[in-house]
Amino acid sequence: MTTASYKSTTHLSNPAPTVASTIRSTASHLSASLDSHPQHSKWWMRNYGIGQRKLVRHLTRGRRGGHRRLGFAAGNFPVENVRFGEGLSLTVACGPRVSLYGGRGGMTSEFHRRLAGGRGTEGEEGTLLFGQKEEDEGEDDETKFDKVHPDRQISTGGHLATAACGRSDHRLVAVGTEGGMVRICDVNSRATLRTFSCSKAEGGGDRKSIRDVCWMRDGKRVVAGGDDGVVRVWNVRMDDVEVELVGHGDSVRCVAVVSYKDATKKVTQKDEAAPEVIDDSFQSEWSQLIVSGSYDHTIRVWDITDMAEAEKCTSIMNHGDPVQALLVLPPINNAYSALQNKKSKAKYDNITLLASAGGTTIKIWNPFTGACLGTYPTKHAKTITCMCLLDLLEEDEDEDDATTLPQRKRQIITGGLDGLLRIHSATPQDILSGSLPFLHGMQFSDPISALDISHDMARLAIGFTTGIVMVHQRRQMPTQAVAKKRRDPKPGTYSFFMRGAHEKSHDPDDYLLMPQKKQKLAEYDVLLRKFRYGDALDKVLETRQPQNVSNSIFLHNTLNVLLYAKAQVLLVHSDQRYLS
After folding, report:
1. pTM here?
2. Which of 206, 209, 171 is nearest to 86 (CA)?
């Protein structure tokens, strides 16, 4: 791209409003945010524990496989980035290092062990929805967070880590630093395999911070954007930059990769997200577009399929505010769309969409045409800093609302500097209707700087500017229960003797005999069995219950009659020699 297409921030930005129009009441924002959806609020509190602590405890009381919450301090610096990887591993960029939690270690990781047996709703902060303070039972602030040590830490050479993203196979991690460098590090050995630097000769990026990094689908190239306004694509097998995308007039704050299937391409090898054998001859039916958001209020879409083409920017979209976050909305699964009626199918079911966050608004775009599908205010009091997408297909648990088709939850989660976590519905029907309904939210005491949700929607990570990371693990559904692997008991032990005692039979002809519980006798019944009739009668009279007293007197008289009759029989049939 030529230098003539370079536009400054003042040229692209809108006219600055007056000072009087920029002053808004925070109370008006919060009061308008209280209209949440009752059913969805209960779902979030019951499954993820996000909401008022007392309500969460009430909804999760007596339920098995409840949600888990884990809060720990990742460092003394703001959390710049949180990303989930394979095996529910978590990558946290905070301060001069990148911390790796979980990974391939399984339950040997302290991170996984804490979430497997961690506390539920007892650790929630005493903050109600949207700023109302809850009465605390005298807990100290230090006891609200756990001490979780990372499994591995990757050093950045003294520079602050501003972004981190792990490859899909969780073998490599790309780390962006404030010194304008991108490091490709091995997860297991923590060694730096490649170091890419932005020098002045390559576009004036010396000592300019990298703000976001991401991997492309082939797992061979890394996309990075920084304060110099240039988007660069590096190949991990090369030392030089592969392509530079110049056009933004201010700092690039976020980058994303939009993948879509191209019917014109022929597949020559099995398509995978990140093939283990990286080969230059690898071809796929998937095509990719690079999307970048900048402080110059614009979002640019780049196509680098043809390297020889001079103009690689396919569309420029104006958000109207400095763009802080981008989110790719993948198309709806075709299997689920086939279950729906033709009338309920939406226009954008099979199209990959793009969501951008800038200021306090969200905009939905078509990245292929550059058309804006809608502008949606979020009622945030301050700037939105991060977004993530919950895309879940599950059956409704309530019998009253049970349907033949599973319910699809497609919701955008936003976090801002005001400490608000807001959840909006983002189904294709909502996008067509022109509104993203607000479903649920929670107020935190610290500004939110990072958000991410795992691929299986089991864990939600929230990063704060104070260096705290909170992970909310979704409660385990009965159909998702996984049997734990138990070791075989050793011969000669009690466990070996009792093995199989609690196993359920799969034979329909078998039936279970329930052991009869031993009935506990009253004190007067025990005395009657010991033939202490006088003491038994005294105990019955102490109870002052007429029914028991009458039964005891009747039984006492009956026994006296029987004993007298038995004595007469013995006297008649006994030998007279032994009678006095």
Report:
1. 0.69
2. 171
